[in-house]
Write a structure and sequence with these properties.
mainly alpha, globular, membrane, transmembrane helix
């Protein structure tokens, strides 16, 4: 009975707070920040022991359909044509566009918790930029871990003559590491973004849902696009961009739903205490 009540309240809140519209806004900002971020990231890899193929290979695990062709071709073209000030451009553009996306998340979370944004503009923007920088750092770590994890696994495998099952177990562990990193990112986001004081235990449920939801949606949507969806026939050369936008839309929706889950559980907690 409690689950049914929770589900009804969740759907009501998603409709009231225009979750679908907010997801579309997030998708727009995610798309704007994607290429500047990748350009910045791929410019930085000259200073770390990973290659462009390693970075794009990790993204390929989640990117649906042929969107990797779109991403690879555009990033490679920009990197080849503009070698001058890419690093500084990447920093400025990534922080600006991605912080706009964080601002949209802040508004969505404030709606979820029924609070007004009364913080100063510079505090809100500063918080968004700090969260953006933190997310960039964590994403870089997330990109490095699978690369180093693969190399470490191969080294152990070849040095000690372990069976092939070891590599299967190692790859499973790497997926677990990805889950932990995503869970950490979402937890920080749910704690810092809304204009309300929250404790760690108040956001764990939403973080868990967002992590599982985002990974599941990415895999399922990628499978659908690869086997059933034919966006190219409908949208022509824009098919790849449409697929990318839908993926970002679904990702934004998972983030917003996680915030609404936290808001409902906090409301129930306060009602129970009273």
């Amino acid at each position: 009975m409690g689950i049914l009540r929770f589900g009804k309240q969740l759907f009501h809140r998603l409709d009231r707070n225009e979750a679908l519209g907010m997801s579309a806004e997030l998708a727009y900002f995610f798309l704007l920040s994607l290429f500047p971020f990748l350009i910045f990231l791929l410019t930085l890899i000259a200073y770390v022991p990973i290659t462009q193929e390693d970075v794009l290979g990790v993204i390929h695990q989640y990117a649906p359909g042929d969107t990797m062709l779109l991403i690879e071709s555009n990033v490679s073209r920009i990197l080849n044509e503009q070698r001058g000030d890419l690093l500084s451009f990447g920093i400025i553009a990534t922080i600006w566009f991605a912080s706009n996306g964080i601002n949209a998340i802040v508004r969505a979370f404030n709606r979820a918790f029924d609070v007004n944004e009364n913080r100063h503009f510079f505090i809100v923007r500063g918080t968004a930029i700090l969260l953006t920088l933190a997310m960039v750092f964590v994403i870089i770590v997330a990109l490095l871990l699978p690369v180093f994890g693969r190399e470490i696994g191969l080294f152990i495998f070849s040095s000690y003559g372990l069976s092939e099952e070891f590599l299967t177990i190692w790859n499973t562990i790497r997926w677990g590491v990805s889950f932990v990193i995503l869970f950490f990112v979402f937890t920080c986001l749910y704690l810092a973004a809304p204009n309300i004081r929250l404790h760690l235990k108040d956001v764990l449920a939403g973080s868990f849902f967002a992590t599982i939801g985002w990974m599941s949606v990415s895999v399922l949507f990628s499978y659908y696009v690869s086997n059933f969806g034919n966006y190219t026939a409908m949208y022509g050369s824009l098919g790849g961009i449409i697929v990318l936008l839908v993926w970002f839309y679904l990702s934004g929706l998972m983030i917003i739903i996680g915030g609404e889950i936290n808001a409902i559980l906090l409301q129930w907690k306060k009602s129970f205490v009273r």
